[in-house]
Amino acid sequence: MSRRQKRGDNGLKIHEYLLNPHKVGVFNCSFEIQINDIIRLLEEAVNFDKKDQREPETYNTLRFRRDRMDEGYPWLFDDLKEVLDHLDIYRPDKPPLGPWQLKKPFKWVLTERELRYENILQERNRRMIMGHPFPRTFFERYQADVGTGNAISLNFDIKKEVLRLNLYCLNEQGIDAYKEFLESTPIIGKNIKISKVIQKFSSRYCYKIYPSALIVWLCEVTDNPIPNDILQYSLGAVRYYAQRELRISIVLSAIAVETIMAELYEEITHQPAPPDTLGSLFAQVKKIIQIPDEIKSDVDEVNNNRILAVHRSAAHLGDREARSSLVGATRFTHWVYFEGPFYSKPK
Q1: Residue 110 resides in a domain
Q2: H-helix or E-strand containing 262?
Q3: Which of 29, 36, 142, 157 gives the lowest tally of CB atoms within 10 Å of its CB?
């Protein structure tokens, strides 16, 4: 199968997943890394810096942070990202990483650090342009592979001397890439334990990759008829969701829906849209155009969450509300531009 064919198949799967995550599900695999192996890798990195006669400022800072911890290993996950990135940048062809030349397909990581390449070291810029990725990007929470259409989410926890990574992917290729990466990583790759790959369909798991999948769909998979301002609102909602700024994410999802709703009103009535709230505007639009019941429910959900977010009421706003706003806005957008009044079937 060619890369173009694979992208087409994955694009169809992204489309199906966004509309019905429960039906498509996600692939799940866990990786267990021994704490002592991470410590050994960190110690070897510090010694490596000393042999190179460079002041290991990165690791001095990390050790200072660790000295302030009372118990546990909350620093290990961040340190593992830093040490692999550090060694890979300064001596990618030397021990302890050795001739480690893994090609990583993931291109878009939903963190400000990785999105602002221009603010990182010039060497990182050069290597990014050359297509050589940073090892730390494997450990970010949300990842979108816009090239092959895969969506990924990573969670971790630490129990009894073990760092456990829980990986969720739209397809199994993402899990294969992680296996290759972790098994090829010095020291920790020798003793790593990898679980069996299983597919999950419950709400607890199937929505974990939704932000990443939405990024893929908005950026690459479709021949996008969605206007640029709607795209930016939707992308912004995903980024703020990834950063746990849930109120802002909810508001941006609502703005995307309200903007489309105003355009619908103007196209149908041939009059400027009134300066009403989303709920009021929606009440007028659904009187003059037939909208499927499930789409009405999605818009109502987005509007209800918007009211809670804007009014800053005592009601709890959590992950479920922000996620349902992303889902509702996505389904409404898809209906308008790919099924409903703005859809233009290709000739």
Answers
A1: yes
A2: helix 246-269
A3: 157
Tokens 């966004």 belong to which residue? 18
Q: What distances in angstroms separate CA 38 from CA 138, 162, 250, one per listed residue?
A: 16, 10, 38
CATH of the domain at 317: 1.20.120.330
Pick the closest to residue 299 from 331, 277, 337, 266 (CA basis).
331
CA dihedral 262, 264, 268, 273 (to 10 degrees): 0
From first to last of the 347 residues of the chain, give the pLDDT tens digit: 444 444 445 556 888 999 999 999 999 999 999 888 887 877 776 666 565 545 555 455 455 445 444 445 556 667 777 777 666 554 444 433 333 333 333 333 444 333 333 333 344 444 444 444 556 667 778 888 776 778 889 888 888 788 899 999 999 888 888 888 888 787 888 899 999 999 999 999 999 999 999 988 887 655 668 888 998 899 899 989 988 899 999 999 999 999 999 999 999 999 999 989 999 999 999 998 899 999 999 999 999 999 988 876 656 788 899 999 999 999 999 999 888 776 655 44
DSSP codes joined into one string, 185-216:
STTHHHH-EEPPPEEE-SHHHHTTTHHHHHHH
Retrieve residue 89's tokens. 């940048």
Determine contact, residues 305/254, Cβ cutoff 8 Å: yes
> How many structural domains are present in the chain?
2
